[in-house]
Amino acid sequence: MDTTKKGRKRTIGGKFIKALVIQTLIICIGVSVLVGSLYFYTEIDQIGQKALSVGRLAADHIDGDRIQGYLDTLEKDEHYQEADDFLKKTKEVFGFRHHFVFVYEGDTATALWSAESDDVLGDKKKGSETDTELAQAVLSDNPPEDFLLSYSPEYGLCGTIWVPVHDSSGKSVAIVSVEYSMPELIQTILLFALIAIAVIVLVTVLGGLLFYRNIKMNIIRPVELLEKASSEMVSNIDKDVSFQVDIHTGDELEALADSLNKMEQGIRKYIRELAQVTAEKERINAELNVATSIQTGMLPSIFPAFPNRPEFDIHASMDPAKEVGGDFYDFFMIDDDHLALVIADVSGKGIPAALFMMSSKILINDHAMMGGTPAEILERVNKQVYAHNDAHMFVTVWLGILEISTGILTTASAGHEYPMVNTGGRYELLKDKHGIAIGAMKKSKYKNTEIQLKKGDSIFVYTDGVAEATDADYKFFGTDRTLEALNAIPDGASQKEILAGVRTAVDAFVKEAPQFDDLTMLGLKYFGPVE
Q1: Taking phi first (over 0 means left), then psi (-120 to 50 degrees means alpha), and beta for anything else, what does residue 86 get?
Q2: For position 314, what pLDDT does the model report?
Q3: Is the pLDDT of residue 4 over 50?
Q4: CB count in 10 Å sphere of residue 275
Q5: Backbone angles phi, psi at 19, to 5 degrees
Q6: Dihedral Cα 60, 61, 65, 69, nearest 10 deg
Q7: Does residue 463 sit in helix, strand or coil?
Q8: Which is deepest, 60, 250, 405, 517, by most CB within 10 Å?
Q9: In the structure, what pLDDT confidence band is assigned to residue 515 with cuts at 50, 70 and 90?
Q10: What is the rounded (10 degree) CA torsion for 78, 79, 85, 88?
Q11: 415 or 33: which carries more pLDDT confidence?
Q12: Who contacts 497 (Cβ-Cβ below 8 Å, separation ≥6)?
């Protein structure tokens, strides 16, 4: 065991002490804030009551009927001087910071008396928006009696209360302001908080040390043994060495030690089994890679597919939902004037669908080369598939044979998606005649549909992985959005660009939702015979 691990083990007690210190700080801060707040607001309430009493006493000594005369003449009489002496005396007796009387009109305060100055009568000062609103409230019929706290760099924390002065008719004509400076209150609160913190720290530390000594013997040392055993087990898990921990505390730690011993045995068994499963999974993945290569190699993948045939442009793509898929496409020349187009969707996913897909593709190709209409070809393929379909699988198929010299496209559908044909400048859904899927029934009849392609006309066929692509809310992309995507692609685009445009629209719709089905598309544009 290296010294780093030993150092980590010895920090268990240190972590506890650290937690104890943090807990002590939290308790100290919390209790100090709580008690200090209660003490602070109690003192504030008492000071506020005293300020209100002083303000009311001063208001009672002022003759409100003379206020307007003082403002008009700015002359002082005997009553003015008596009121001024009273304000200065009460300031000294009660120990507040400032005491003055003013008249508030609009947003301007006009001074009448000040306990700090003998010559303020008539001085004007524009008040703040807050002061103006407060003055209007004080001069109302129901004045507030709130003791307001404020802070300034010059005076520190101050408390202010405004009391109205009434004339003989009971109208509020002036305001008495009483201001208290409270640095001594703050100092008292801080001293109280320091004493409380010291007491709490002392009690908490002494109790914590006793508690730590107890848990050191009954918890920390057994945990250290568990940690040592688990570390040795992890370090030597790949070796044939068993590590057992022996703890007899008679509590949950002993049960944990027993569980650790059992877990060590279970992990070793699991590792052996996991090695076998991993080897098997690697073998399956290797086989899946081979199957993917085989399936991809069976589909035409070189484009342009027929560089020497300017009569048409063809492109196709297949994106399986799993490593291998059940969709497939194909196109091949039956003879010099006939091009076969195939797109199909096998029921199911994975390797079974891929095997069924490969056999179906080969059968369709072979029977198409034997001749006949698409309906006849599908009928023969269905008969042969059904005869050997022990897995009861089926495949939907759309088969088309293009007569290149005339542009006549003859199609037949075995339960496949409707094709989308562009014969007038826009893609439209062609609801051709459907038969039942290949392999579903012993005898199935199929009908041909004939499409006359002119120069510049196109056809787009696809599997249900396009229309049934779903977003995170399980909404389908649908045939309408497929048509919109096709018709949004500029004229003159190649078939490769058209398929890429549809795939881009599908990806933009589903966003981060997973792909649930194979997504296969085939597009052909007819340019007409070479003149």
Answers
A1: alpha
A2: 96
A3: no
A4: 10
A5: -65, -35
A6: -140
A7: coil
A8: 517
A9: confident
A10: -140
A11: 415
A12: 489
CA atoms of 205 and 197, how far apart (whole Å)? 12
Q: What is the predicted pLDDT for the residue at 178?
A: 86
Q: From CA 236, how far away is CA 143, in angstroms rounded?
A: 82
Q: What is the dihedral of CA 267, 272, 278, 279, to 10 degrees?
A: 170
- Tell me the residue ranges of DSSP E strands in 384-530: 395-403, 408-414, 420-422, 427-429, 434-435, 449-452, 458-462, 519-526
pLDDT of residue 147: 75
Considering the entire predicted model, what is its pTM? 0.51
CA distances for 495 relative to 305, 500, 517, 525, 529, angstroms:
12, 8, 23, 7, 18
**CA 4, CA 451: separation in Å to the nearest integer?**
81
For the ranges 3-7, 62-66, 159-163, 289-293, the lowest mean pLDDT is seen at 3-7
pLDDT on residue 13: 62
What pLDDT is recorded for position 118?
81
pLDDT exceeds cutoff 60 at 474: yes
Q: Residue 285 has what pLDDT?
A: 60
Q: Find all residues with CB under 8 Å of 311, minimum gap 6, and list them.
A: 404, 526, 527, 528, 529, 530
Tokens 């008969």 belong to residue = 383
pLDDT at 6 over 60: no
Q: Give me the phi and psi of 254, to 5 degrees please.
A: -65, -40
Residue 117, token pair as written in the block: 């100055």
Q: In the structure, what pLDDT confidence band is assigned to residue 269 with cuts at 50, 70 and 90?
A: confident
Phi, psi of 348 (to 5 degrees): 90, 180
* The dihedral sign for the CA sequence 24, 29, 34, 35: positive
CATH of the domain spanning 3-186, picked from 3.90.1150.10, 3.40.50.300, 3.30.450.20, 3.40.47.10: 3.30.450.20
For the CA atoms of 27, 30, 34, 35, what is the dihedral angle to 10 degrees?
A: 40
Cα 484 to Cα 496: distance, rounded to the nearest angstrom: 17
Residue 159 contacts residue 44 (beta carbons within 8 Å): yes
